[in-house]
């Protein structure tokens, strides 16, 4: 499969990829986050660079090495990830949102460490984070070709397709995270690439190999759209 990888497929294109979790602070020592490892986004960045693109990775906190020839902007919160995504967006041809963005953040960040009180139940107030990929997809005529991910545990294609439409995306990568052999922290993954008029299934493979096949497919769909 690696031999079939078309090295020039994204030559001259600028690709922006979000990856990893976001971290939403509660106070100076605590945050809300999730188990995203960032592996899929980093593998996509490597594959896009290998396909000839100039690549900017906008990454939440992960423990991975930045692939060679990839420009990495490190962020923590969803709001920082949005700001980094919109920075220089005019230059972006292809935007791929692989990050597991926290849907909500604490309403307020306490200046000092929150102390344990006498109450048994503690309630947190959260407010919705901006939707980064929907914001980019909604930029209008100059918007980049926009690709999202959908991590689902049931009716995977159905929910992915409704996200594609709701967020105004060109493509969405549907990921069944109910299968413990694939997804979030695993080294392997299997996905279905969903567009308005077709579905392409990419069988289980290492995230590195799958990323190459995904970039190949995304590049093909992108070229079709610019014809
Ligand atoms: N996403 C984003 N900004 C957010 C939330 C999600 O850019 N604030 C992007 C993710 O990077 C992914 C896609 O949107 O590409 C779908 O994320 P997902 O969490 O599956 O969708 P949600 O709209 O948040 O729906 P839900 O979590 O309720 O399934
Ligand atoms: Ca979400």
Overview of the structural elements:
The structure is a single chain. The chain has 227 residues and is an alpha/beta fold. The chain is built from 5 helices and 12 strands. It has helices at residues 39-50, 78-86, 132-137, 156-167, 207-226, and strands at residues 14-19, 24-27, 30-32, 54-59, 70-74, 94-97, 104-106, 126-128, 145-152, 171-176, 188-195, 199-206. The strands form 3 sheets. Strands 5-4-1-6-9-10-11-12 form an 8-stranded mixed beta sheet, with helices on both faces. Strands 2-3 form a two-stranded antiparallel sheet. The protein is globular. It binds cytidine-5'-triphosphate and calcium ion. This is Coenzyme A biosynthesis bifunctional protein CoaBC. Residues 15-227 are annotated as: Phosphopantothenate--cysteine ligase. Residues 10-220 form the DNA/pantothenate metabolism flavoprotein C-terminal domain. Keywords: Decarboxylase, Flavoprotein, FMN, Ligase, Lyase, Magnesium, Metal-binding, Multifunctional enzyme. It comes from Marinobacterium marinum.
